[in-house]
Recover the amino acids of this structure.
């Protein structure tokens, strides 16, 4: 048994698994570049105040899930629990709002940390891909973000996917809904969980997002926010739906969908999958028109989404999608004797410079053991170098798939034509 283990809720990506991540990352980059999004990278740590103001003090993330500590300067620091707040902080701090808008950014290698019970595809340390679209208030920006997520998922061959949409209003119309919702919840106050009793005063909309069965039952007959939208929010949603219809994208209006973060306005959405059980959300996002201003910048509309990489890989696995394992080595050069070992090393270097993937013996195996190892690592070709081969200046290349052999000069330029 190992003396040390990874902390609960974290997971190693083993070398033989990394190609799956690389495949997914390459697919994401191919898609986002078609829409003109550029990559942004933010620190793993941020000042805690950023999340208190941006994400919201009444959210589960802030109240229950953040990894927060005091550094040696007695500053409160938090491992980032989500991607958007850090991107907005970067947008404001670097005065990107002063550039010609819109600003389109995405993040890919983005570790986030939440102290919660590990679940399907969601670990205490997990990784997110997300897009953030600043400076555009039109519903076309919302539609473009949803399109990116849908295109990615469909390109991976995933089925059983549903886009769930809602509008949660804006600062003009949401207070009217809050009052109607609170009037309804007062009649069920004693039945609410303790957390939702706090939410009742601070942010009653979050009661609709509660996972406690008794609160979910209460939410069924709660007033619907769509009945309280102002004309601006209603027109925005209608414009978005028209664009989604035009793309032929299937969606469901879910009046109970509110998402778990306080910064959302107007559009919220999730894409769910049937293949990972009850924890079905593959990605989620929405519009956050007040967040840049909340964090100290000028009023700037924004919209985006986040997607858990581990969860997406799990969905792909559960739906039977096979990612082709890349060829690790084009050639293995086996060697016998010190002179042949040196020649194998220098030949391998020349072949690598020419673009071939080559391996040699580094630990002194016998030729028979080297051949077994070459087969184990999936080398496409094997070449054996010994005294006779060096004397003749030529050796045999064996193709491992069918055993066919060809004779070639021991020369990188000649060999490369046979193996690439």
């Amino acid at each position: 048994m190992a003396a040390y283990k990874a902390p609960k809720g974290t997971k190693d990506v083993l070398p033989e698994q990394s190609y799956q991540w690389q495949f997914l990352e390459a697919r994401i980059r191919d898609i986002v570049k078609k829409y003109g999004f550029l990559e942004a990278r933010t620190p793993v740590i941020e000042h805690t105040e950023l999340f208190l103001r941006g994400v919201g003090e009444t959210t589960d993330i802030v109240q229950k899930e953040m990894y927060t500590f005091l550094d040696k300067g007695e500053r409160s620091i938090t491992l980032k629990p989500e991607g958007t707040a850090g991107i907005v902080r970067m947008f404001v701090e670097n005065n990107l709002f002063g550039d010609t808008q819109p600003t389109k950014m995405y993040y890919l290698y983005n570790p986030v940390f939440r102290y919660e019970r590990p679940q399907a595809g969601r670990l205490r340390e997990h990784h997110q891909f997300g897009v953030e679209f600043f400076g555009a208030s039109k519903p076309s920006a919302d539609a473009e973000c949803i399109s990116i997520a849908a295109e990615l998922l469909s390109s991976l061959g995933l089925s059983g996917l549903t886009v769930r949409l809602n509008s949660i209003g804006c600062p003009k119309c949401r207070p009217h809904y809050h009052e109607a919702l609170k009037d309804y919840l007062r009649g069920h106050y004693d039945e609410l969980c303790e957390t939702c009793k706090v939410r009742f005063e601070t942010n009653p909309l979050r009661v609709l997002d509660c996972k406690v069965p008794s609160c979910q039952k209460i939410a069924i007959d709660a007033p619907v926010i769509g009945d309280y939208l102002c004309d601006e929010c209603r027109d925005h949603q209608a414009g978005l739906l028209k664009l989604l219809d035009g793309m032929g994208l299937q969606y469901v209006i879910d009046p109970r969908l509110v998402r778990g973060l306080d910064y959302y306005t107007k559009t919220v959405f999730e894409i769910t999958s049937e293949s990972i059980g009850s924890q079905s959300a593959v990605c989620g996002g929405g519009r956050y028109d007040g967040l840049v201003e909340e964090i100290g910048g000028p009023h700037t509309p924004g919209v985006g989404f986040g997607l858990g990489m581990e969860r997406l890989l799990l969905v792909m696995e559960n739906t039977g999608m096979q990612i082709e394992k890349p060829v690790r080595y084009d050639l293995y050069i086996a060697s016998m004797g010190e002179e042949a070992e040196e020649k194998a090393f220098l030949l391998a270097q020349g072949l690598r410079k020419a673009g071939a993937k080559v391996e040699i013996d580094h630990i002194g195996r016998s030729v028979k053991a080297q051949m077994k190892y070459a087969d184990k690592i999936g080398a496409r070709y094997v070449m054996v170098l010994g005294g006779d081969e060096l004397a003749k200046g030529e050796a045999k290349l064996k193709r491992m798939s069918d055993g066919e052999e060809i004779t070639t000069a021991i020369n990188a330029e000649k060999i490369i034509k046979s193996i690439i």
User: Anything to note?
Assistant: Residues 18-173+229-318 form a domain with the BirA Bifunctional Protein; domain 2 fold (CATH 3.30.930.10). DSSP finds 15 helices and 17 strands in the chain. The mean pLDDT is 92. The chain has two domains: 18-173+229-318, 331-419.
